[in-house]
Design goal:
33 strands; 5-stranded antiparallel beta sheet; alpha+beta; OB fold (Dihydrolipoamide Acetyltransferase, E2P)
Length: 704
Amino acid sequence: MLVKEKLLEFMHEKAYNPMLKKELMDIFEIDRKQNRLFSSLLNDMVEEGLIIKTRKKRYGVPERMGLVVGRLQMNQKGYGFVVPDKPGITDVFIPANLINGAMNNDKVVARKDTVYRDFCKKTEGEIIRILERANPEVIGVYENNRNFGFVIPDDPKIVTDIFIPKEEMGEVKEGDKVVCEIIKWPDARRNPEGKIIEIIGHRDDVGVDILSIMRKYNLTVDFPKKVEAEIKNISDEVSEKEKANRKDLRDMTTITIDGADAKDLDDAVSIEKLSNGNFKLGVHIADVTHYVREGTALDKEALERGTSVYLVDRVVPMLPRKLSNGICSLNPKVDRLTLSVFMEINKKGEVINHEIAESVINVKERMIYEDISDILEKDDQNLKDKYSHLLNEFKMMEELCLILKKHRENRGAIDFDFPETKVILDKDGKPVDIIKYERRIANRIIEEFMLICNETIAEHFYWQDVPFVYRVHEDPSLEKLEEFNEFIYNFGYHLKGLNTGIHPKALQDLLEKVKGAKEERLINTLMLRSLKKARYADKGLGHFGLAAEHYCHFTAPIRRYPDLEIHRIIKEAINGKLDNERISRLREIVPGVAEQSSIRERVADEAERETTDLKKVEYMADRIGEEYEGIISGLTSFGIFVELDNTIEGLIPLSYLYDDYYIYDSERHILTGEMRKKTYRIGDAIKVKVNRVNIAQKEIDFMI
């Protein structure tokens, strides 16, 4: 056991009292010659928040000293919560007057106090130390004063303006969207001070809104010169030499099925029925690792990016377009290098045999979801005539899709069916329509085929016992599920088997029961929040949501780095290159790949959501006074959340309800008028008018 771990174990013992450095050195028999090294170790542990150094220079763990280490999550009203690093510890509420110069997402130490308010015992606290600053740069709008300026942050959770001295203004003008670097951090009585380091453009200029979000998340479409130099000599066509020693599948009927505007085509599929009645499904994935070699500038940049980011008006690719839209993309009627997985699947949806091979394919048709769905769901005659040579394959795909879906449902996989939003923009980036994007049969076909392929690959390599990147979704915490169970009790539901260890089947059963009910959307949303987030890991910990013992991401190496890393391992395995030295090296590489991929996935999700939310608000800003039908999606003590059919959500503040004084019952989730007893419940249909829109705060106010 390392000294660090021994120290932590020792300090967590009940009998331990905070000690001086000298006392710890005596107990652990640390030589005086190692004094400097030991001091450095203690300092590192203090900076990480693992231990605390008191004013009297004694060391102890925060939990034993009434302290909490975590990230500060601010509210735009000025107060915040410290979310502890360690699971199982309750969040600590921090009043605005006790933030003490900390900013949103800073890593902090808070002192806990138990206070009595409104006849309730509550945990509140005060920030006593800032361990790590999270906002060295802030993006916002510059406002001028005679002798100085201010930057008003775009992020509403950064609740203080940034003071800009005259000498730090540069060429900035009133209303410019800027990046400012913090040069003096705030304290309890003073705003932060900054200097302008970049002018993105005027806030009213076309495209500046999205560029600001990209800058916030450090997203760039351009690649470093080193990367551009490396890819310069990559051919736009596959050579005969590259096709050698591969399984030649060019005569096979392979097709791609994607969205109409997709340009990076990762996957193609093929299907046939065997004489025994089983299906032979082929999933053919672009062989990206043939072009992205380990350790190159291109590979390092791809890992740094981790994933392609699909913003509302553009794609920030993981790989340069020469690869992502060119030689790697499975475009029709051209030869492409692939990694193919053939699976024999019986009528129960079980994979009874599989084969993995390096291959070369030539896609016969580039299909889109809408066309296949119209053929299978609407029997569209024009499309049937156009694709008459593929109708048999489409029917087989639908049949196999339903078998696989049934198989997953039988074992308890949870299928959340949240509507996706599609934002239609004009040439200037202005939103002209917001529509609900449906998952139709063609989407489900590809979804099921990729799921079974990913599962097959993960299981194969789990039993090979080699380093691998898994997609894991751990079992939910009992505490979260008990809270969720208490909530759904108000609607007459309960979770089965909560005391004996929850199975995903119990959650799936609940989703079936609420289907079509008023409260369906709410229960779906709260159930999802009760579950842990899926992530990448170097250990196969299973996937709760899919009710799968082993799962990975293999099918999208153009746009996800974990898939690319997996391809590398697979190719080395099937070519006999995984010797002990290579396995040892992979054991060093894989945990870092998993962690970086998880971090970048979260960044991509946040950036994508922020650009979509921005365009939703912009869309409604032109529709003030218009009326819409909606559904009550949430109730709080300050108002009613309403979701429109196009997925846009807004708030009816309680102050807009003029007919009565309304009281919110948090246990029954009902808003009731004190005099007339009129009630509002989640799921109720309601007609609203757009009353106010604040684009900067991304807020939409409705009124009844």
